[in-house]
Amino acid sequence: MTELHWLEAHEAAELIATKQLTSLELTKALLDRIEKYDTGLNAFLTLRPDEALEDAKKADEAVQKREKIGAIHGVPFALKDIIDAADWPTTAHSRLFADNIAKNDAEVTMRLKRAGGILLGKLSTHEFALGGPSFDLPWPPARNAWGRDYFPGGSSSGSGAAVAAGFVPIALGTDTGGSVRNPASMNGLLGMKATYGRVSRRGVIPLSFSLDHVGPLTRTVRDNALALSIISGFDEQDPGSSNVVTPNFSKYSGSGVKGLKIGVIKHFYQEDMIASNEMSSGLENAFAVLADNGAVLEEIKTRPLIDFATCNRIILLSEACAIHEKWLVERTDEYGESLLTRLLPGTAFNAVDYVQAVRTRARYAAEFNEFFKEFDAIVTVNNMEVAFPIEDQAACDKYYSRQARTPFNVTGNPALAVPIGFDGGGLPMSMQIITNQFDETMAYRIAASYEAATNWTKMHPDLDKTATLP
Amino acid sequence: MDIKNFAKRYMPKEVIEAVGSDRAEVAIKMASSAAARLDRNNEFFYEPAHVYHPGNWSAKK
């Protein structure tokens, strides 16, 4: 059997359901691994081992009693610490919320528990999902599972580190300007930002109401499709929730990419920004794999990255400042420097800027979605470089914003981060697959075909070398 | 679109006092720059992206 910590969620669920493995064995194994290695990675802010073990015992009893069980029965998961779980802290990795205890489960937490998942802990994030990586907060920042000296991406940084390290097979993150896909990219994971409205945001501390998405990070395509199937669905208490029917996203299986028409946006990384040579080569190799498997690839051009990024920033920071307005003045000293620096421009935009940005957003989305009359999907770069050294502030300032994720927060389309290999230093690289609104299944279909043709999602970090303290 | 009349952005004085003039100056520059870059070429009929539907305002059951 695969080592327990590298079991996929669907594999573990199958083994537990068929009594070849107990949830208690699995949960213990993951807790032991966290105890051994998380001092080097700082992925978790809150762990409750006793509670998790108790839940695991109950899960095993349900199997023994042949009760009806869910799709991830007995399988541990973890949450970015802006997502509520009843009676757990939700700190947003901030002094401001250090004593905040959630009263209820977020909708997504409730759905994962209802599917049988065992909540293992709450994960490190950039402060309020915006500022970071920060060294001036009560908790240290998470570090990259492939090398603890490196940035793990953000803002769902703990989610990326935890899944890549084999601490949990599924973690949830949030994505307002790319914060699921960034840690997925830098930790060699699958990370899905589904269509806006597909996944409820109720019970999640907002960053920007109209751009926030909740999404899963996993090590494989199949687990990601499974996790999205579990957390998706209409929630009448989320004003942005869509009542479009939720399919079983796992039904991409065996479809392949033969005959699919895929647009390639190269100007994002060849003109608007210049990606590193290794990233460019990695992308070309990945696109060649899709072509070799029968997809028809054609270069397309959309607006430059700066247009989308500007639209995203004005909306995001304006909405964020509506949330932080009072605290910014009354509790200024409790903010970390990184969050304060990123948030403050939002107090200077005027009402017309914001309204023009949300009008522009509608136009950009309409323009972009015209592509899907002709194309089944679009592929492009994720980050322009691999992870930078986390303690190098100059590198952070230089590389943090060099990415192509914000366009799809603006347009609301599904965007899936997919690992495409490693650079010469052993750090993960990534591409994005973007599909028509509510067609996440197509993204999984293409990703699964690519995954089957490569070995990237089977490769894991050796934490004895990458995660141990000096 | 000529947006010169709107080029300078301002920060509420309460915020400037709270965060200090150095931080405020940097933030104002960033906001002014982003506002100037925004593509405002919207036709009059383009409504905001997140116009609410009446259903969103109805009483929850």
What features would you describe in this structure?
- Chain A has 470 residues and is an alpha/beta fold.
- Chain A has one domain (4-466): Amidase signature (AS) enzymes.
- Helices cover 39% and strands 13% of the residues of chain A.
- Chain A contains 16 helices and 11 strands.
- Chain A has helices at residues 9-17, 23-41, 49-64, 107-114, 157-164, 181-187, 221-231, 267-272, 277-292, 305-330, 337-343, 351-369, 393-399, 406-411, 440-453, 463-466, and strands at 44-47, 76-80, 118-123, 170-175, 190-193, 213-218, 261-265, 296-300, 377-381, 415-422, 428-435.
- Chain A has an 11-stranded mixed beta sheet.
- In chain A, a hairpin with a 5-residue loop joins strand 10 and strand 11.
- Chain A is globular, with a radius of gyration of 21 Å.
- The two termini of chain A are 32 Å apart.
- The relative contact order of chain A is 0.14.
- The mean pLDDT of chain A is 97.
- With 61 residues, chain B is mainly alpha-helical.
- Chain B has a domain at 1-40.
- Chain B has 3 helices and no strands.
- Chain A binds chain B through residues 209-210, 236-237, 239-240, 306-307, 310-311, 313-314, 328-330, 332, 340-341, 344-350, 352-353, 355-363, 365, and chain B through 6, 9-12, 14-15, 18-19, 23-24, 26-28, 30-32, 34-35, 37-42, 46-50, 52, 56, 60-61.
Topology:
The complex is a heterodimer of chains A (470) and B (61).
Chain A: H1 9-17, H2 23-41, E1 44-47, H3 49-64, E2 76-80, H4 107-114, E3 118-123, H5 157-164, E4 170-175, H6 181-187, E5 190-193, E6 213-218, H7 221-231, E7 261-265, H8 267-272, H9 277-292, E8 296-300, H10 305-330, H11 337-343, H12 351-369, E9 377-381, H13 393-399, H14 406-411, E10 415-422, E11 428-435, H15 440-453, H16 463-466
Parallel strand pairs in A: 2-3, 2-4, 7-8, 7-9
Antiparallel strand pairs in A: 1-3, 4-6, 5-6, 5-10, 9-11, 10-11
Helix pairs in contact in A: 2-3, 5-6, 7-15, 10-12
Chain B: H1 13-19, H2 21-37, H3 54-57
